[in-house]
């Protein structure tokens, strides 16, 4: 019994993007993961991302909880809630700067977390954009074209300038 690490669809995609696989495998892997697999994997991705947020915030808290500044005041991470606040602000790329790791261990954990979490939380946005593009492509191929919102029922205005009429589509 053999197991493949890379699925055949990554190596030879149905649209013939063999060179795209060589140039950008992460894009195609994410596309394959979200478009083919469905919404269950999207939920799993968010779940893993939140677990990463919880654990990374905890590790930063462990590294920074005993920090005392030069002026005698405690560091920025006096409680786990402070570390979670820092984690959420880091993941959302807001970065207020109100809490910053001071120790080298805290900075290493924060750096690894930032690279992991920001890229990991960006994957669902990529997948939603791809799903929208795929839906528009399918609609255009089926003759729905024209772009924009087109209701299935109700009133629809004709787009030709010659005849502006309202038709009922029920």
From TrEMBL:
Q: Which PANTHER family match?
A: POTASSIUM VOLTAGE-GATED CHANNEL SUBFAMILY KQT MEMBER 1, POTASSIUM VOLTAGE-GATED CHANNEL SUBFAMILY KQT MEMBER 4
GO (cellular component) term, any one: voltage-gated potassium channel complex
Transmembrane stretches in the record are 42-63, 75-96, 108-129
UniProt region (Disordered), positions on chain: 139-170
Record domain Potassium channel: where: 58-130
Q: What is this protein called?
A: Potassium channel domain-containing protein
Q: What UniProt keywords apply to this chain's record, in alphabetical order?
A: Membrane, Transmembrane, Transmembrane helix
Q: What is the organism of origin for this protein?
A: Bemisia tabaci (Sweetpotato whitefly)
Q: What is a single molecular function from GO for this protein?
A: voltage-gated potassium channel activity
